[in-house]
Design brief:
Blueprint (H helix, E strand, L loop, with lengths): L9 E9 L13 H18 L9 E12 L8 E11 L3 E10 L8 E11 L4 E2 L4 H8 L1
Antiparallel strand pairs: 1-3, 2-5, 3-4, 4-5, 5-6
Length: 140
């Protein structure tokens, strides 16, 4: 069974990370928690590259929802290519999606998933409208 990501998404970033020996579990494949870590690596790299860093004493992102569909097993050795997409954009939030492939098998999606990112005022503990520069970047 192949689960598809929502059709309205725009590719915004691609990164590669190694599959480390320590990423493996007792079953001989990458532990399920690492798939979320790979998506996190791509997400943080993307946001920082575009100047949208989180300031815990000011404004930044929190994750309201996160999910991962495990389609095939990743195994060491190798590298994971993570393609990141922007989906639905709201007043104070937006959806991101990711596809994980091996660099030596880039036509096969091993996992996909995503998250809803919310722009927050941390001291005030409330969501804020997305900053105009972020909204412009998200809409391409």
């Amino acid at each position: 069974m192949k689960l598809e990501l929502p059709p309205l998404k725009r590719l915004v970033h691609t990164t590669v990370t190694p599959i480390r020996w320590g990423d493996m579990d007792a079953m001989g494949h990458v532990n399920n928690t690492l798939y979320l870590r790979y998506m996190e690596t791509a997400r943080i790299e993307l946001m920082e590259k575009n100047g949208f860093r989180t300031n815990p004493h000011g404004h930044g992102f929190v994750i309201a929802n996160i999910f991962c569909n495990f389609l095939r097993q990743l195994e060491h050795p190798g590298e994971v290519m993570i393609k990141s997409y922007v989906g639905t954009i709201g007043r104070s939030s937006f959806d991101m999606y990711h596809e994980l492939m091996r660099t030596d098998d880039s036509s096969t999606v091993y996992a996909n998933g995503g998250e809803t990112m919310v722009w927050m005022d941390f001291p005030g503990q409330k969501s804020l409208p997305l900053p105009s520069l972020l909204r412009e970047w998200l809409t391409g």
